[in-house]
Amino acid sequence: MGRIVLEKVSKSFGDVEVIPPLDLEINDGEFVVFVGPSGCGKSTLLRLIAGLEDVSGGRILIDGQDATAVPPAKRGLAMVFQSYALYPHMTVRKNIAFPLRMAGLDKAEQDRRVEQAAEVLNLTDYLDRRPGQLSGGQRQRVAIGRAIVREPAAFLFDEPLSNLDAALRVGMRLEISELHNRLETTMIYVTHDQVEAMTMADKIVVLQAGVIEQVGSPLELYRAPRNKFVAGFIGSPK
Ligand code: ADP
Ligand code: MG
Protein backbone atom coordinates (compact mmCIF):
# COMPACT_ATOMS: atom_id res chain seq x y z
CA MET A 1 0.00 0.00 0.00
CA GLY A 2 1.26 3.47 -0.90
CA ARG A 3 3.41 2.90 -3.97
CA ILE A 4 2.83 5.65 -6.52
CA VAL A 5 4.28 5.60 -10.03
CA LEU A 6 4.07 8.41 -12.56
CA GLU A 7 4.62 7.41 -16.19
CA LYS A 8 5.20 10.23 -18.67
CA VAL A 9 2.85 12.46 -16.71
CA SER A 10 2.45 15.94 -18.17
CA LYS A 11 0.26 18.97 -17.55
CA SER A 12 -0.65 21.98 -19.65
CA PHE A 13 -2.91 24.86 -18.79
CA GLY A 14 -4.19 26.06 -22.15
CA ASP A 15 -1.16 26.37 -24.42
CA VAL A 16 1.30 26.48 -21.56
CA GLU A 17 2.98 23.21 -20.63
CA VAL A 18 3.87 23.64 -16.97
CA ILE A 19 4.98 20.00 -16.56
CA PRO A 20 6.62 18.30 -19.53
CA PRO A 21 6.32 14.48 -19.46
CA LEU A 22 8.04 13.11 -16.35
CA ASP A 23 8.58 9.74 -14.69
CA LEU A 24 8.72 9.25 -10.95
CA GLU A 25 8.54 6.31 -8.55
CA ILE A 26 7.51 6.70 -4.94
CA ASN A 27 7.93 3.59 -2.84
CA ASP A 28 5.60 2.37 -0.14
CA GLY A 29 6.36 4.08 3.15
CA GLU A 30 8.74 6.66 1.71
CA PHE A 31 8.83 10.29 2.86
CA VAL A 32 9.27 12.15 -0.42
CA VAL A 33 9.75 15.91 -0.60
CA PHE A 34 9.05 17.93 -3.76
CA VAL A 35 11.22 21.01 -3.52
CA GLY A 36 11.86 23.91 -5.86
CA PRO A 37 11.27 27.61 -6.27
CA SER A 38 7.84 29.19 -6.36
CA GLY A 39 5.99 28.46 -9.60
CA CYS A 40 8.07 25.38 -10.54
CA GLY A 41 5.02 23.08 -10.50
CA LYS A 42 5.17 21.44 -7.06
CA SER A 43 1.51 22.02 -6.22
CA THR A 44 0.40 21.07 -9.72
CA LEU A 45 2.28 17.77 -9.50
CA LEU A 46 0.75 17.03 -6.09
CA ARG A 47 -2.72 17.93 -7.35
CA LEU A 48 -2.27 15.59 -10.33
CA ILE A 49 -1.39 12.75 -7.93
CA ALA A 50 -4.38 13.66 -5.73
CA GLY A 51 -6.67 13.79 -8.77
CA LEU A 52 -7.59 17.43 -8.14
CA GLU A 53 -6.25 18.18 -11.64
CA ASP A 54 -6.49 15.93 -14.69
CA VAL A 55 -3.23 14.95 -16.38
CA SER A 56 -2.70 16.18 -19.95
CA GLY A 57 -0.78 13.00 -20.75
CA GLY A 58 0.66 9.89 -19.13
CA ARG A 59 -0.51 7.57 -16.36
CA ILE A 60 -0.62 7.52 -12.57
CA LEU A 61 -0.43 4.11 -10.91
CA ILE A 62 -1.33 3.66 -7.26
CA ASP A 63 -0.38 0.27 -5.87
CA GLY A 64 -0.18 -1.12 -9.37
CA GLN A 65 -3.64 0.07 -10.41
CA ASP A 66 -4.13 2.71 -13.08
CA ALA A 67 -5.62 5.61 -11.09
CA THR A 68 -5.36 8.23 -13.85
CA ALA A 69 -9.14 8.46 -14.30
CA VAL A 70 -10.09 7.63 -10.70
CA PRO A 71 -11.79 10.54 -8.86
CA PRO A 72 -9.89 12.04 -5.90
CA ALA A 73 -12.13 10.56 -3.19
CA LYS A 74 -11.53 7.05 -4.54
CA ARG A 75 -7.72 7.20 -4.81
CA GLY A 76 -7.15 6.32 -1.16
CA LEU A 77 -4.91 9.36 -0.65
CA ALA A 78 -5.41 12.18 1.83
CA MET A 79 -4.39 15.76 1.22
CA VAL A 80 -3.40 17.75 4.31
CA PHE A 81 -4.32 21.38 3.91
CA GLN A 82 -3.11 24.33 5.92
CA SER A 83 -4.85 24.66 9.25
CA TYR A 84 -6.98 27.61 8.15
CA ALA A 85 -9.04 25.11 6.12
CA LEU A 86 -10.70 23.92 9.37
CA TYR A 87 -14.37 24.66 9.99
CA PRO A 88 -14.40 27.31 12.75
CA HIS A 89 -17.94 26.54 13.93
CA MET A 90 -17.29 22.80 14.40
CA THR A 91 -15.58 21.14 17.34
CA VAL A 92 -12.23 19.43 16.85
CA ARG A 93 -14.06 16.09 16.99
CA LYS A 94 -16.42 17.13 14.19
CA ASN A 95 -13.62 18.62 12.11
CA ILE A 96 -11.64 15.39 12.30
CA ALA A 97 -14.68 13.21 11.69
CA PHE A 98 -15.84 15.32 8.74
CA PRO A 99 -14.45 13.14 5.91
CA LEU A 100 -15.83 10.02 7.62
CA ARG A 101 -19.27 11.59 7.92
CA MET A 102 -19.11 12.47 4.21
CA ALA A 103 -18.12 8.87 3.43
CA GLY A 104 -21.13 7.61 5.42
CA LEU A 105 -19.22 5.59 8.04
CA ASP A 106 -21.29 4.59 11.04
CA LYS A 107 -21.02 6.67 14.20
CA ALA A 108 -19.17 4.06 16.26
CA GLU A 109 -16.49 3.64 13.60
CA GLN A 110 -16.21 7.44 13.28
CA ASP A 111 -15.70 7.77 17.04
CA ARG A 112 -13.15 4.95 17.11
CA ARG A 113 -11.04 6.48 14.37
CA VAL A 114 -11.29 10.03 15.73
CA GLU A 115 -10.20 8.92 19.18
CA GLN A 116 -7.32 6.91 17.76
CA ALA A 117 -6.13 9.89 15.68
CA ALA A 118 -6.53 12.24 18.65
CA GLU A 119 -4.33 9.98 20.74
CA VAL A 120 -1.60 9.83 18.09
CA LEU A 121 -1.70 13.63 17.79
CA ASN A 122 -2.06 14.48 21.50
CA LEU A 123 -5.46 16.06 20.93
CA THR A 124 -7.52 13.87 23.25
CA ASP A 125 -8.16 16.70 25.72
CA TYR A 126 -9.14 19.12 22.99
CA LEU A 127 -11.83 17.19 21.09
CA ASP A 128 -14.67 19.37 22.33
CA ARG A 129 -12.99 22.69 21.62
CA ARG A 130 -13.34 24.74 18.49
CA PRO A 131 -10.37 25.64 16.27
CA GLY A 132 -10.41 29.24 17.57
CA GLN A 133 -9.60 27.93 21.06
CA LEU A 134 -6.44 26.12 19.92
CA SER A 135 -2.84 27.14 19.30
CA GLY A 136 -1.49 27.24 15.74
CA GLY A 137 0.31 23.93 16.23
CA GLN A 138 -2.79 22.25 17.62
CA ARG A 139 -4.84 23.51 14.70
CA GLN A 140 -2.31 22.06 12.27
CA ARG A 141 -2.55 18.75 14.12
CA VAL A 142 -6.33 18.79 13.71
CA ALA A 143 -5.83 19.27 9.96
CA ILE A 144 -3.50 16.24 9.97
CA GLY A 145 -6.04 14.30 12.07
CA ARG A 146 -8.62 14.83 9.38
CA ALA A 147 -6.26 13.01 6.99
CA ILE A 148 -5.27 10.24 9.43
CA VAL A 149 -8.84 9.06 10.06
CA ARG A 150 -9.21 8.20 6.39
CA GLU A 151 -6.41 5.64 6.81
CA PRO A 152 -4.95 6.67 3.46
CA ALA A 153 -2.35 4.81 1.40
CA ALA A 154 -0.44 8.10 1.28
CA PHE A 155 -0.56 11.57 2.80
CA LEU A 156 -0.08 14.57 0.52
CA PHE A 157 1.10 17.80 2.16
CA ASP A 158 1.24 21.11 0.29
CA GLU A 159 3.38 23.54 2.30
CA PRO A 160 1.35 22.76 5.43
CA LEU A 161 3.51 24.87 7.72
CA SER A 162 3.94 28.00 5.65
CA ASN A 163 1.52 30.10 7.71
CA LEU A 164 3.00 29.08 11.07
CA ASP A 165 5.70 31.16 12.77
CA ALA A 166 9.32 29.97 12.56
CA ALA A 167 9.56 28.39 16.01
CA LEU A 168 6.32 26.48 15.60
CA ARG A 169 7.42 25.31 12.15
CA VAL A 170 10.46 23.57 13.59
CA GLY A 171 8.31 21.73 16.13
CA MET A 172 5.73 20.70 13.55
CA ARG A 173 8.44 19.37 11.22
CA LEU A 174 9.56 17.06 13.99
CA GLU A 175 5.99 16.04 14.72
CA ILE A 176 5.31 15.17 11.09
CA SER A 177 8.56 13.19 10.87
CA GLU A 178 7.62 11.35 14.06
CA LEU A 179 4.17 10.64 12.69
CA HIS A 180 5.77 9.18 9.58
CA ASN A 181 7.97 6.92 11.69
CA ARG A 182 4.96 5.75 13.65
CA LEU A 183 2.53 5.20 10.77
CA GLU A 184 5.09 4.11 8.16
CA THR A 185 2.73 5.45 5.51
CA THR A 186 3.91 7.08 2.29
CA MET A 187 4.08 10.86 2.61
CA ILE A 188 4.59 13.35 -0.19
CA TYR A 189 5.51 16.74 1.14
CA VAL A 190 5.72 19.90 -0.96
CA THR A 191 7.88 22.80 0.18
CA HIS A 192 10.06 25.58 -1.19
CA ASP A 193 12.14 25.37 1.99
CA GLN A 194 15.49 23.60 1.53
CA VAL A 195 15.93 23.00 5.26
CA GLU A 196 12.57 21.26 5.43
CA ALA A 197 13.55 19.08 2.47
CA MET A 198 16.98 18.18 3.81
CA THR A 199 15.78 17.38 7.33
CA MET A 200 12.54 15.51 6.59
CA ALA A 201 13.00 13.58 3.35
CA ASP A 202 13.97 10.00 2.60
CA LYS A 203 13.95 11.11 -1.02
CA ILE A 204 14.06 14.62 -2.45
CA VAL A 205 12.67 15.50 -5.88
CA VAL A 206 14.18 18.80 -7.06
CA LEU A 207 11.97 20.60 -9.57
CA GLN A 208 12.71 23.53 -11.81
CA ALA A 209 10.15 24.81 -14.33
CA GLY A 210 8.22 21.52 -14.19
CA VAL A 211 11.32 19.43 -14.86
CA ILE A 212 12.84 17.00 -12.36
CA GLU A 213 16.47 18.11 -12.00
CA GLN A 214 17.44 15.32 -9.62
CA VAL A 215 16.00 12.65 -7.34
CA GLY A 216 17.97 11.33 -4.40
CA SER A 217 18.43 11.15 -0.67
CA PRO A 218 19.46 14.36 1.10
CA LEU A 219 23.01 12.98 1.42
CA GLU A 220 23.20 12.02 -2.28
CA LEU A 221 22.03 15.44 -3.35
CA TYR A 222 24.44 17.13 -0.98
CA ARG A 223 27.43 15.04 -2.01
CA ALA A 224 26.72 14.74 -5.71
CA PRO A 225 24.43 17.45 -7.00
CA ARG A 226 23.89 16.86 -10.72
CA ASN A 227 24.12 20.53 -11.68
CA LYS A 228 24.54 24.06 -10.42
CA PHE A 229 20.82 24.53 -9.90
CA VAL A 230 20.60 21.57 -7.51
CA ALA A 231 23.82 22.57 -5.77
CA GLY A 232 22.60 26.12 -5.32
CA PHE A 233 19.22 25.05 -4.13
CA ILE A 234 20.40 22.40 -1.69
CA GLY A 235 23.29 24.54 -0.50
CA SER A 236 25.99 21.97 -1.27
CA PRO A 237 29.54 22.95 -2.19
CA LYS A 238 29.63 22.16 -5.95
P1 ADP B 1 4.46 25.84 -7.12
O1 ADP B 1 3.50 25.09 -6.28
O2 ADP B 1 5.76 25.16 -7.31
O3 ADP B 1 4.66 27.25 -6.63
P2 ADP B 1 2.38 25.65 -9.14
O4 ADP B 1 2.22 24.20 -9.35
O5 ADP B 1 1.36 26.33 -8.29
O6 ADP B 1 3.84 25.98 -8.60
O7 ADP B 1 2.38 26.39 -10.54
C1 ADP B 1 3.19 25.97 -11.62
C2 ADP B 1 2.88 26.81 -12.83
O8 ADP B 1 1.57 26.50 -13.31
C3 ADP B 1 2.90 28.30 -12.55
O9 ADP B 1 3.43 28.96 -13.67
C4 ADP B 1 1.43 28.63 -12.38
O10 ADP B 1 1.17 29.96 -12.72
C5 ADP B 1 0.77 27.67 -13.33
N1 ADP B 1 -0.59 27.29 -12.92
C6 ADP B 1 -0.90 26.59 -11.78
N2 ADP B 1 -2.23 26.37 -11.72
C7 ADP B 1 -2.77 26.94 -12.82
C8 ADP B 1 -4.10 27.06 -13.34
N3 ADP B 1 -5.16 26.52 -12.70
N4 ADP B 1 -4.27 27.71 -14.51
C9 ADP B 1 -3.22 28.23 -15.17
N5 ADP B 1 -1.95 28.15 -14.75
C10 ADP B 1 -1.72 27.53 -13.59
MG1 MG C 1 2.52 25.60 -4.51
UniProtKB/TrEMBL annotation:
Keywords: ATP-binding, Hydrolase, Nucleotide-binding, Transport
GO-annotated molecular function: ABC-type maltose transporter activity; ATP binding; ATP hydrolysis activity
Domain ABC transporter, chain residue ranges per copy: 4-234
EC number: 3.6.3.19
GO terms under cellular component: ATP-binding cassette (ABC) transporter complex, substrate-binding subunit-containing; maltose transport complex
Similarity section: Belongs to the ABC transporter superfamily.
Name of the protein: Maltose/maltodextrin import ATP-binding protein MalK
Organism for this UniProt entry: Ruegeria arenilitoris
Covered range of the whole protein: 1 to 238 of 334
